[in-house]
Amino acid sequence: MADLILAAPEIFLICAISVVLLTDVFLPGDQKNITYSLALLSLVGTAAMTAYFSVDETVIGFSGSFVADPAGSVLKIFAYLMVAICFLYSRDYLERAGLLRGEFFVLGLFGLLGIMVIISGHNLLTLYLGLELLSLSLYTLVAFNRDSGICAESAMKYFVLGAIASGTLLYGISFLYGVTGTIELQALGEHFRESDVLSLPLILGLTFVIVGVAFKFGAVPFHMWLPDVYQGAPTPVTLYVGSAPKIAAFALAWRVLADGLAGLHENWADMVVVLAVLSLGIGNIVAIAQSNLKRMLAYSTISHVGFILMGFAVGTEDGLRASMFYTLTYVIMAAGAFGMIILLSRRGFEAENLEDFKGLNARSPWFAFVMLMVMFSMAGVPPLVGFYAKVVVLESLLAVNMFWLAGSAVFFTVIGAFYYLRVVWYMYFADPLNEESLEATTDLRVALSINGLVLLALGVFPGPLLDLCVQVLS
Amino acid sequence: MDLDLPILSFLIWLPIFAAVIVLWLGSLNQAEVGKSVALAASLFTFAASILLYTGFDATTASMQFVERVAWIERFRADYYLGVDGISMPLVLLTTFLTPIVIIAGWEVIRVQPTQYFAAFLLLEGLMVGVFAALDGLLFYVFWEAMLVPMFLIIGVWGGERRIYATVKFFLYTFLGSVFMLVALIYLYLQAGSYSILDFHELPLGMFEQLMIFSAFLLAFAVKVPMWPVHTWLPDAHVEAPTGGSVILAAVLLKMGGYGFIRFSLPITPDASQALDWLMIGLSLIAIVYISFVALAQQDMKKLIAYSSIAHMGFVTLGFFVVFSVALNGNGGDGARLALQGGMVQMISHGLISGALFLCVGVMYDRLHTRQIRDYGGVVNTMPKFAALMVLFALANAGLPGTSGFVGEFFVILAAFQANLWLAFVAATTLVMGAAYTLWMIKRVVFGDITNKSVGALQDIGHREFGMLAFLALAILLIGVWPAPLVEVMEQTLGQLIEHVLQSKL
Q1: Minimal-distance CA residue of chain B relative to A424
Q2: For a FRET experiment, which of A131, A309, B428, B480 has its CA 20 to 30 Å from that of A170?
Q3: Quick check: A398 contacting B, CB < 8 Å?
Q4: How would you write chain A as a 3-class SS string?
Q5: What is the pTM of this model?
Q6: Each residue of B245-258: pLDDT tens digit?
């Protein structure tokens, strides 16, 4: 019974999904707004369950395969928030595009369930289970616009590469199991704290697990799927793929690397450093060459992943907190950026090219300013929250004397600043390609405005969120 | 004198909130009201900043008007403000110039006027923040945030190649600053807080000092700018609107100098001493070589931009000559003279270069060209304007009786105590400065009218006369009676010299 209470939010969510799914089946096509409302309600309910059944310290249940801890609860709450924002931003767009179908919300919620299972997974197979649940929902979501060839193509790519990555991860897990005789994270952690002797199977297992995790993050050189998926998927799906699953990727890396394999940190840290520097370099440089905003944001994601991985490479508690703070703030920024693309899109017109942002200041000064905040935050310019995300990572790097890593991080940040600046100059310095005013519903406008202001507010007062990350990860 | 009013916070946040109100008025199509609000806010800020001067205690070197509230506990970073004799004059310079810039743009800015004025108000608040911040992280936040409005000012209201210029400006400054951020975080990890005053007392090894000094150098040298990282400045100046050029030359460049005197010298004194030959060399290159470059310019704004680099060379020369002065000369007094010279030069150059850019702006508004050859004989049609412009040009050339003379004289005097040849090379700038400035004046202002459009020029009205006259007054006042300015910084600089000459090793 105690175990079931630990998993109460997950259980509630799966019941709620079933209700949403069944209701949706009986709803006529023009009343899908009810599905939307129900989906949001289930998110609120799940959040309430998480808050009510939250724990003050780490509790492990289901014979060691499930864990509830404060950091997990925080990550889950953020994941709900991101999914809710995604639904909120998407409804109007989907309606205009004739895509407002119940499946979007049901799949979105299933994906969220997968994220929650990853966050709470405490053995390698539970983690794998959550990952597959999330991935399958994402593959389907990417192909959501079934009449579009480009959607189908990117979904196919995503599926094939994703399946290989999952296989790799599973393969690595099997090696780890073979070496240690356990898949439970605590037992793994104890095993490696006692003996850090590297054998060939262990090296293989470690490498394959890292590759699997890197793939889910989209770190270079396992990033090939990311730009295609971001560009090919309908924008609401890109928004979904780009936000909440990043929290899951962080959780996966945290549970597996920083928790289970902590004893082997010295051995995997170098691999992560290589991944991080490559991601920062290639992500930032290639993003400069993009003319499609979604693709540019994909490469920008890759570069941000580089920063998140640096926190893991540090290997201290501070590094982990820095990564968590970076992840949480990054998803807020990403939501703002994709929200802006949704805002500018109209029926039959995707505002996904950089050109479409030209002269936005003349059309809508306020939303140009919101996008300016998102871009400068991503570039790491104070007083926006993206700046502190970089500061905490740099601090954790310098605390362990990883100077050249910190140096390369700031160097690539400067290179990255260029393409964020380009968006701003298109909005402010160029003449608009069309003068039409924005046609967006009030809820989208309000939500997006709040999203932008949150970046500024957290930028002026980052203290509470920083303290939260310290508090839950200690 | 201890006032409990949080004047510094007021000087930072009043312009920023006024900027929000101006933007809001702009969205209601109340651009005229917005302009008036902007002007009122900037004047009110200036009036409030006078309290800083009247309430300032020149007999102490410690920080005054201190405000300290915990800000980010995770970093032990505080909202920590205060001014001493170094920063107080710079705050006043900022608040004095902002209303002038707003008046300068009053009738000229047609595109998005409220955004223009709001950007300058925002910039004012952030610039005061840079000078007043005593917490490293807070300083960095203001320092970087300032790039955003400046980026927009050049990009939206600038000239033909504005996008190239503004992106270059942003990336150059950003590249310099991020390494300073790394240095600040490193200092924080060593000192356990972000307080700049704690950084001053922090013992550091020679290698650490050299690394930190280099990181600071990158940030501040770009900002000053020093040769060879000065190339963004002529581009930015030429393309920026008049107001942008004024603020850029008058205040933004001073932040580099301020950084050297607030961070580099006291935090890494031994590295500064070890590398002073480098800094002096770069300063002399800026003074001599850039003066020759200025001589060759056809564009008035570019000429003043290069002249700015040369004049800022005096500032860095004054700051880094202190070690050789202290060794060769009569110790602390000569070194303090050098620092005073650098500081006076910063304030004076802020006023003079600002005034010259305004003069170019006045002519540009009428003929829409900045090329020297398009003018000639302006004095015939615009006598009032010509009188003022000649005054500013003479001040730029370092004429005694103007503020331009005081700073350069102090620095050269101090340099004599270090090395005769050093002083000799530095003094050539007085000749060179006179050459390029007066030659420009000769071609633009004097002579016969060669161009029909110059013949049709209207002399300046009350608005333009007023803003230039205020600057002229300030320049003459400092030139004739520099004592009030020198006195407020005396104690602070004296203590700084003592601190800097004491090795941290």
Answers
A1: B152
A2: A309
A3: yes
A4: CHHHHHCHHHHHHHHHHHHHHHHHHHCCHHHHHHHHHHHHHHHHHHHHHHHHCCCCCCEEECCCCEEECHHHHHHHHHHHHHHHHHHHHHHHHHHHHCCCCHHHHHHHHHHHHHHHHHHHECEHHHHHHHHHHHHHHHHHHHCCCCCCHHHHHHHHHHHHHHHHHHHHHHHHHHHHHHHHCCCEHHHHHHHHHHCCCCCHHHHHHHHHHHHHHHHHHCCCCCCCHHHHHHHHCCHHHHHHHHCHHHHHHHHHHHHHHHHHCHHHHHHHHHHHHHHHHHHHHHHHHHHHCCCEHHHHHHHHHHHHHHHHHHHHHHCCHHHHHHHHHHHHHHHHHHHHHHHHHHHHCECCECCCEHHHHCCHHHHCHHHHHHHHHHHHHHHCCCCCHHHHHHHHHHHHHHHCCCHHHHHHHHHHHHHHHHHHHHHHHHHHHCCCCCCCCCCCCHHHHHHHHHHHHHHHHHHHCCHHHHHHHHHHCC
A5: 0.93
A6: 999 989 999 999 99
